[in-house]
């Protein structure tokens, strides 16, 4: 049972091909330097979830991370201003490379293992909560694969792909998707005209998540659903690796946990319906760091036993345990737009 569980799990290398690593590292470094060269446009902030003043946690590559003593959210402070972030994503070499090389090379694996199951999960969520399925808006549509998979389910009457990175937006258009390139805060749609909003791995990039959520609520119909996913800093791979985690980078500004994201959603007028961590890669990510010599388990014999000595036998069951007990670093929260005053 343990062996088959490992084999059925998605590998990190399936969705992050290892070719052209030098070019990718150079693109990431160029993007980071773009931001660091403009640190005079960084802005000091308080906790994006509860507003408390943060305490220093660690620095990584000249970026300062703080942790909220109240809700335990980790966040970048100071951070690039909103206008600087728009400039950053418009010029990003890394996103251009993902659009040109990584997404095409890994799309089959991503479609099969991530986007098709994600679309079916969204369908099941909508049916379970009996939400109207007129219009779906995906915020941060990327390569457009998720919208394509949802379209194949014939569930929604209208699907809108919101993508602000120009090259990715063009890829979505080439797939015959309806595309908008505006932030949700500036979206020109009638209030209450969207029935379901999906935002996967986006909120961690935003300058002001509260403003984003309030804009989502404005566009959602009463009773409409917001489905969010983002990194969970208290999940296994990120809490284990901390600053050595690849999820801790110059693009990610906000690292929520299940309780802090719930707090923020409720402050913005949402009723939280589901909190899950259906991650597949936590154990594999930490194991790969160990095998690459980038993380040392010599003083953690229990983890060494699971991730190295008995990986084939129990690695999959360990990942199952993390996912089922909300201990994965991949967080999903489903919430409903509460009645407006």
Explain the overall architecture:
With 341 residues, this protein is α/β, with parallel strands linked by helices. The protein has one domain: Vaccinia Virus protein VP39 (Rossmann fold). Helices cover 44% and strands 20% of the residues. It is built from 13 helices and 13 strands. Mean pLDDT is 93; it is low at 1-8.
Summarize the SSE layout with pairings.
Layout: H1 2-8, H2 12-15, H3 21-36, E1 42-43, E2 55-60, E3 63-67, E4 74-76, E5 79-80, H4 82-91, H5 93-128, E6 135-139, H6 145-152, E7 158-162, H7 166-174, E8 178-180, E9 194-200, H8 209-219, E10 220-231, H9 236-241, E11 254-255, H10 258-267, E12 270-276, H11 282-291, H12 301-309, H13 311-324, E13 330-337
Overall helicity: 40-55%
Any low-confidence stretches, pLDDT <50, length ≥5? 1-8
Mean pLDDT: 93
CATH architecture, please?
A: 3-Layer(aba) Sandwich
N- to C-terminal separation? 52 Å
Describe this protein with a few key phrases.
single chain; 341 residues; seven-stranded mixed β-sheet; four-stranded antiparallel β-sheet
Gist?
The chain is an alpha/beta fold. The protein is 44% helix and 20% strand. The protein has helices at 2-8, 12-15, 21-36, 82-91, 93-128, 145-152, 166-174, 209-219, 236-241, 258-267, 282-291, 301-309, 311-324; strands spanning 42-43, 55-60, 63-67, 74-76, 79-80, 135-139, 158-162, 178-180, 194-200, 220-231, 254-255, 270-276, 330-337.
């Amino acid at each position: 049972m343990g062996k088959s569980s490992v084999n059925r799990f998605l590998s990190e290398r399936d969705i992050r091909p290892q070719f052209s690593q030098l070019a990718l590292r150079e693109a990431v470094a160029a993007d980071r330097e773009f931001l660091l060269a403009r640190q005079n446009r960084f802005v000091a902030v308080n906790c994006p979830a509860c507003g408390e003043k943060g305490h220093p946690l660690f620095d990584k590559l000249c970026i300062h991370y703080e942790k909220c003593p109240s809700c335990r959210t980790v966040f970048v402070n100071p951070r690039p201003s909103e206008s600087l972030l728009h400039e950053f994503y418009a010029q990003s070499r890394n996103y251009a490379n993902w659009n040109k090389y990584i997404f095409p090379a890994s799309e089959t694996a991503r479609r099969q293992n991530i986007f098709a199951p994600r679309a079916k999960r969204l369908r099941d969520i909508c049916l379970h909560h009996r939400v109207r399925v007129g219009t779906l808006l995906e915020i941060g549509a990327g390569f457009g694969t998720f919208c394509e998979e949802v379209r194949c389910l014939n569930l929604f009457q209208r699907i809108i792909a919101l993508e602000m990175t120009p090259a990715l937006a063009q890829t979505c258009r080439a797939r015959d998707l309806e595309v908008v390139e505006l932030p949700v805060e500036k979206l020109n749609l009638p209030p209450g005209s969207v029935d379901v909003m999906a935002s996967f791995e986006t909120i961690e990039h935003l300058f002001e998540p509260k403003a984003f959520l309030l804009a989502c609520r404005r566009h959602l119909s009463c009773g409409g659903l917001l489905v969010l996913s983002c990194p969970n800093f208290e999940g296994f791979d990120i809490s284990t690796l901390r600053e050595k985690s690849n999820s801790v980078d110059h693009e990610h500004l906000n690292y929520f946990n299940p309780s802090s994201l719930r707090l923020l959603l409720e402050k913005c007028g949402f009723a939280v319906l589901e909190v899950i961590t259906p991650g597949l890669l936590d154990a594999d990510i930490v194991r790969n760091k160990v095998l690459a010599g980038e993380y040392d388990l010599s003083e953690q014999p229990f983890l060494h036993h699971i991730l190295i000595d008995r990986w084939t036998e129990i690695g999959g069951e360990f990942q199952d345990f993390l996912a089922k007990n909300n201990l994965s670093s991949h967080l999903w929260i489903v919430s409903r737009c509460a009645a407006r005053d």
